[in-house]
Amino acid sequence: MIEILRTRSVVRTLLRLSVMVILFAGCSAHGVASIPNAAAATFEIGEQAFLLNGEPLQIRCGEIHYARVPREYWKHRIEMVRATGMNAVCVYLFWNFHERREGEFTWQDQADVAEFCRLAQEAGLWVILRPGPYSCAEWEMGGLPWWLLKHEDIALRSRDSRFVEATRRYFEQVGEQLAPLQVTQGGPILMVQVENEYGFYGDDAAYMGEMKQALLDAGFEVPLFACNPPYSIARGFDPDLFQVVNFGSDPDSAFAALREFQPTGPLMCGEFYPAWFDTWGNPHHDGDPSTYIPTLDKMTAMGASYSIYMVHGGTTFGFWAGADRPFKPDTSSYDYDAPVSEAGWTTDAFFMLRDMVQQHLPDGQRIPEPPARNPVISIPAISFSQQAAVLENLPESIQHTEPQTFETLDVYRAGMVYETKLAPGSAGTLRAEAINDFSWVYLDGVFLGVTDRRSRSFEVPLPERSAESRLQIFVWSMGRINFGPEIHDRKGMHGPVTLISESGESTELLDWAHYPLTLEQSYREQLSYRNVSDDQSAQPRFWRATFDLDKTGDSFLDLSRWGKGVVWVNGHALGRFWNIGPTQTMYLPGPWLKPGENEIVVLDLLGPESPVISGRESPVLDQLRPELDFSGPRRKLRELNLESHLPHQKVSFENSPSKQVVHFDQLARGRYFCLLTQDSWNEEIVASVGEIDLLDSEGQAISHERWTIAYVSSEERHDMDGTAENAIDGQTSSVWSTYFAHNTPDHPHAIVIDLGREEILSGFTLVPAPGTSKRGRIRNAEIFIGDDLVREP
Question: Which of 91, 272, 638, 766 would staple 790 via disulfide (CB 3.0–4.6 Å)?
Fold first, then answer.
């Protein structure tokens, strides 16, 4: 039997108490398990199955995040999960949600995860706990606290003593809250995850051992486990941890990869993806239940356990949405096209999933009916009559010679205004090393231009100045990157900041005033509003209005006529909006409304087409409007320039879903990397890629922080999100696919990555697009590396 950290012999000697058994949905191949109850029990990893009190248990789990569901709806959403036929719920903890300032923990109200677990137990669900320290989940910084970045040289997710000690303190708190809810103590928690997909990030088994020991020391005695994609299991592998594998299709190959490391024990998919999340400016993701339900059916029939990520996505309220690498900000809607919709509604996939599970239950066992849908209301048009300009409502400044990042100044989110004086002089260019993430530049109150991290455009032209002038740069941060080494994502201006004259002379700009704008309620309450008819000069503004309701219910605020910003209703931050889509509405939970007068505040960084908002009875999640992007196209118009170049290397790929490593015959040097396909397997003329990583001279993966897509010959944006940026975002379930919806160009297909600077490369890795169809799996390609692989037309 595989031994997975059940800790000490105390678990093996727990009394098996005789309790009243309520039959529940176990798999017919493995008998019937009881639902959670208040009696202590044993849970072990057997030779072929999970064993609950010695009896086989197949885990059918659905993931939901308590932080993404209003507390008032926790019970409703848990009952919805139960009504899909699941017998367990997977619970992520986000460390930064509980320790927002170092040493200050909160476990109350929306952060009361213990209550969420108790509600799951009351509903008849077991709990799979995933406490971190790293979570990912398209959440700000992957759940890691921003204040760790105050240490300039800290190495996150490593044995850096500062990280390990902070993690231990956090796990001690987690243990105080949740260790009493383990199955061994009468609670619903069956297993606890150690870290999350660490093999995607690092390769230090000793680090995994540190995290494992920290959880043991925190009082967790149930089995501990690790999860990874099939091709990352070996990295950081700890043989004392039970292993599960994450995938969205093709369980046969994924489980075969798992068996290479874990010859016995139950098979489990730790994250099974029915669909995917959305990022701003890219197509909405739709899952295909006609494809993934049969895959779940297959796993159920073969006795494998699984957790559906997500069975209900919910909403990333407030400022908690993260960003994909190298920088693709995530939408606040986390609908995920999951079986249970963002607002908790049933879907076609919900009933298909429910029917599939029902077919595997013993005769006479029925899945409970879903709870009733919560009330939904429309809200008549709300006209805004008051506004407050950001630059006219600045807090006290903090002075520094050089511009500081947010983290250095204890600014953990939202915005900062940087201000300095410019001497008289000729026209030139303002340039920064980096500005994370967007900025609006003003000279004596006159708007000059924007910078945009998506395209790594960090310079703005400055006019001639006849007198000393005031330079203001309003920097707006989106969520910190939540995946890969880029989680070391410090916000704000990164110096040096220089003024480049027309003659090319560079002058560093010093003596900066910093005005932090974290947008706390105390700040918003002090805003000085004026009538809309007053000054309308272009700059970020708050808008305020009130509206009356006779009754309350869920609604979806229509933000399609607004620009980009944040909305608060009765003090609750609903999240971020952006007119480029795909999300055009914001979910407004009914419990956050009240009969009578309600207040709504909107911060719009761009300005609305019309300052009016109404509430719809249904969401709009799939409307892209790239023509409204405030900084223009994310990619410059470029042409491929390979005529004078010979390929650095010709490569052939296996007809396999596994990650493939290509080592160059000799080192290459250049700023651009081009993959030029020649053909695909199965005579396909489509090409697709799950992920590309480039290797430095030592064979280590290079950070994607500076990367952008310089050119792509073809990409699918109609029938799916096949944008080229998906090939470098670190997420292998999001893919670059060439165009196929209405016409399908033939090979060669080209994708060119701009590395942001010249690099020395020894090779690269390529993960094919996932799935059993093998569509677009590249067979032969040529690799070009150089400094001029693209040109301006």
Answer: 638
